[in-house]
Amino acid sequence: MKICHLTSVHPAEDIRIFVKECRYLEQSGFDTSLIVANSDTYVKDGVKIIGVDVHAGNRYLRIVKGPQKVYKKALEVNADVYHFHDPELLPIGVLLKRKGKKVIYDVHEDVPEQVLSKEWIPSFLRVPISKIVKRVERFASKRFDAVVTATPTINERFETYNPNSVSIHNFPITNELMSEDLPSSEQAVKQSAIYIGGITKLRGIEEMVDAIELVNQKTTIPLTLAGKFSPESLEEQVKKQSGWKYVNHVGWLNREEVREYLGQAFVGLVLLHPEPRYMVSYPIKLFEYMSAGIPVIASDFPVWREIIEDSGCGICVDPQNIKEISDAILWFYENPEEAKRLGKNGREAILKKYSWENEAARLTALYKKL
After folding, report:
1. Which of 98, 325, 348, 77 is nearest to 213 (CA)?
2. What is the pTM assigned to this prediction?
3. At what angle do helices 255-262 and 284-292 cross, to 10 degrees?
4. Which of the residues 82, 139, 233, 308 has the least number of beta carbons within 10 Å of its own beta carbon?
5. Can you tell me the distance from the alpha carbon of 236 to that of 95, in angstroms, rounded to the nearest whole number?
6. Is 50 exceeded by the pLDDT of residue 189?
7. Residues 324 and 317 sit within 8 Å (Cβ to Cβ)
8. How many CA atoms within 13 Å lie on the side-chain side of 169?
9. Which domains does the chain have, with CATH numbers?
10. Is 183's pLDDT higher than 80?
């Protein structure tokens, strides 16, 4: 079976699209290509990455030009199944379906909810655009052969559009971030708290910096911050917070570097604000911390609390309460043996329940069904 994944937004070696889905499909015997906007053309791990030039003067032009160029290249590939990852490619999915191709829509986020908090969209347009996006998703998804969703909540909506909808969670690859030897408790107390991922206000950057300042009024603990600020202007704003002097911002990391820094941390933070789309999400960082064998401090959302309590791998806090966050960091610092035990619980939960290998088997089963 010849499979072609399509994205006009994500990078060529995106974790979900390339590392997990495309690479696993190639390893499972599928002839796999990936068309990517603004990428080089090359082969990696057997996957044929095909770049198309979609450079545009602004976001709006990209949304128009990108799908057109991706579609033209998709026709050249002439695959049996097309699997696309961006809502702006929905019209392309419909066109490919009219060409007699099998088409899968991979829904990473609840896009109608996401639109409501997009700062680049004028506030008076967000609600009408959200409603339009929802209608377009419903119209198009009914015509596709399958829909893949990243969370059960998103899947519940798409099942009403297309009965062949399946939730493929973005869980970690079992051994990617695990170190064979966990740090000893004596080493762990000397190391840092860590946050890895996109750095935005809604992901709690301001609260994390304020919390680490409170922590350092009692002891010395740095916060390792890995990722890119969005928007870029936010970085200068956050650097003005007095707690910034306790932050080690290491920028964007490759996967080997992520593993290395996680191995040096005694606790991982995932403190997203209580936005509706976040409260029902399955944050990959939560599972990556678990995979690395470190305990977590996470936002106290019902879905997250259930995972953390069931696994026994961390503490839930109010993500906008600086004192709760700082107290939780100090507790893990002052109780290294308990931190080690909770980290081990998280690793075991990944092995038993939250591994990508289990999800990938369901993905390949979907392809074979098609």
Report:
1. 325
2. 0.87
3. 60
4. 233
5. 44
6. no
7. yes
8. 23
9. 2-171+355-369 (3.40.50.2000), 185-352 (3.40.50.2000)
10. no
